[in-house]
């Protein structure tokens, strides 16, 4: 395989979309009588951990609402970073796993990317249930453990979150610093190739 340009894959929920903030806001709106903790305060990937039955039911219901994914706010600096990568000859593709429990998640994600990141990025959006099947040198993703049927071609650049602090390796905290976090991964891969 001839590698012409480095490929950077970017997850949507959390690196590009303020998913947890949207979830908290909507849950408080729909269920004002139920206590919902602030975004950024959970320390486990499983967001239902420690919730009582009512809290769990509320949050899972909101996650399945039609249009939920359309209302998310974009992450500051992310759009600029994606277009800077493209300008610097990096092949950027979004790589996201749509919820199968939300009937409009997949189509809402594409419409949302189109609205907030532009058609050029929408054309580069891959929706998959298994990110290990997608080829690339780097994957920017907040999920602590990514499993699939393949040994991934990419190296994960963990997108900093309270629930992934235990993960070692490359880490992106702010999109303004994408070069420091991502370029070393691409250079290492080029040397290895
Ligand atoms: Mg994510």
Give me some keywords for this one.
globular; 193 residues; disordered C terminus; 34% helix; binds magnesium ion; 6-stranded parallel β-sheet
Order of helices and strands: EHHHEHHEEEEH
Count of individual beta strands: 6
Largest sheet: 6 strands, parallel
Residue share in β-strands:
5-15%
Distance between the termini: 10 Å
The set of bound ligands, ions and cofactors reads: magnesium ion
Rounded to an integer, what's the Rg over CA atoms?
Answer: 17 Å
- Helix/strand class: alpha/beta
Determine the number of helices (DSSP H or I, runs of at least 4 residues): 6
Would you kindly provide a written description of the structure presented here, covering whatever features stand out?
This protein is of the alpha/beta class and 193 residues long. Helices cover 34% and strands 12% of the residues. The protein is built from six helices and six strands. Strands 3-2-1-4-5-6 form a six-stranded parallel β-sheet, covered by helices on one side. Helix 1 (19-30) crosses helix 2. The longest helix is centred in the C-terminal third of the chain and has 15 residues, at 178-192. It is globular. The protein starts with 6 loop residues before the first strand and ends with a helix. Residues 188-193 have low confidence and may be disordered.
What is this entry, summarized?
The chain is α/β, with parallel strands linked by helices. 34% of the residues lie in helices and 12% in strands.
